[in-house]
Amino acid sequence: MDKNETWGIKLILQISCMAFLALVTSGRKVSLFGCAIIAIASGIFLLKSHITARELKHLLSTKYGVMGFFLCGTIGCCFFGRWIVSDQMILIANFLGIDAIILILICAVCGVLAATPIVAACLSFYAEIAIKEYREVRQNEDKIKLKKVSAKRAFAIVTFVYILGISAILRANINYIDDMGRIAEGYKGWEDYSRFLSVSLSSFLHMGNYLTDISPLPQLLAVVILAASGILLLYVFYNRTHFDGYELIALVPLGLNPYFLQCISYKFDSPYMALSILGSVIPILYTKKRTIVYIGASIIGMIIVCTTYQAASGIYPMLVALQAFKMWNEQQSLKETGQFCLKSVIGWGTGLMLYNLIIMIPRDGGYASSHLASMGQLISSALNNLAKYYNYVKEDFKTYWLVLVFILVLGFIWTAVKRSKRNGLITIIMAVTYLALSGLVCFGVYPALEKQSMSPRAMYCVGVMITLIGIYVVERKGNLICKISSFVLSWAFFVFALTYGNALHIQKEYTDFRIQMAVEELNEMDVFLKEQPVVVQISGTIGQSPILKNMPQNYAMLNRLIQVTFRQNWYWGTIEFYTYYGLKNVINDSKIDLRTYDLPVIEEKMYYTIKGRDNYVLVELK
User: Is the pTM for the entire model greater than 0.85?
Assistant: First the structure.
């Protein structure tokens, strides 16, 4: 009877796997073909596995069943939104004689219910492994009675430091770039870049498909995720659950590096950008487990990264490289180290491939492309783009920041030699190789794309790389110079975070002042009292607040982070003007350019000049 019961549960899991694939597929021919291959492979795996009915029932416990249903439910919301505009679904609905919305809703509900068992089983399997290992490590440490901070207290401390660091950003309460559109129209938009997990989780977080402003909750949630990622990093690389003060200080660049501050500035995007870091760290928890378990975790982690924020695709390779270097430096066999690297490459590559083939919807427009550069130009293009990224780092970072990072890099090499059980010269070569490799993979797949984002938010892996170097050099006693350098750099980033948040507030007040002045002037014009619509366009820019212009120019990073949101030739530069003030009979006709019209001057003011004729008005900002 147990054998028949086992086969029955395996059949349920196989059907559930197919339902999950149906929920996440993009619907392309290559995607459907990939889903079919995975369904066959999973069927063969279940067929040959020796797992018993009792073990399967343990995986399908109520606790993880609820969690699996929640996750599948959020994915189901994304499925509904993606297929509601599908011509194929409309044709099928017409053929069946039912409304397309009802058909897709039925498919979504059935898919969610059917997919829950396999998701619950995976959650249960991986969570229980990690929890069991954590408890064993903690019990061993309890016997030794380490005089350090426990993981729970460390998590609370790091969370508090992060919240304090972004407190000025929260106080500024600025609608940062895309936030302006989402607040005005409630859309998601992440599906345009195949970030479907962001789309799914946002439906739950905002309790609906129309996104309302619930800040600062998303930003606080991002901080919690970042703190958890940092503690997991320490746990993985130190193999203990208690940490000292310097080790916690080394985590500050993870969440408060200048590049991730732009991510935190987004009221809607921030938790999913933070989740991309956590998704990169989680697979490293399973490096000592069976090959299939580790590769599976790596695949899941990479899919989490790619469906939240692809800029984090370089974090996992950096973590793997550091782990491999530590294994080699501690004189583990080359065979064991090589096998670990091979498994990691397979997991990383397979995760990217599955995302590319099954989940991703190719995109050419926008600020980034999903296509790689042509094979003939791939290497040269990637190296050229890497040079651009690091040139930005050179320009963005203050000089003494770069000096401190350089000290940490030298400290990394010195520490590696000091702890090495191998030849000193070879250790130096391997340490430099690791640093070079981390530098190459830091930005993930972005440098290899035809078109990539160069904005600060796409470069936050630099902060992760600095964090990894920091946590390596501050471990154990000694290395006082490195520890002091890590502390000073963390303090510099902490201070910059507060400076940036307050600068955001200053710029917001200045922008509101300039927009309101222009709106009040237009409100007094008779042309807006008529029923005919008036074409209003903005020319010029308000620039930065005078206070920011007076700040020392060595904060060049602020110029990239603080956006001027009242200016011409940028959608986000005028959306607040057109959307937030309810201007009567005002339209923005992008097909014409009023700057080329010979319009007479109506008003000449200190901050702007208003020109116009008939139903055309041009506001020239000064």
Answer: yes
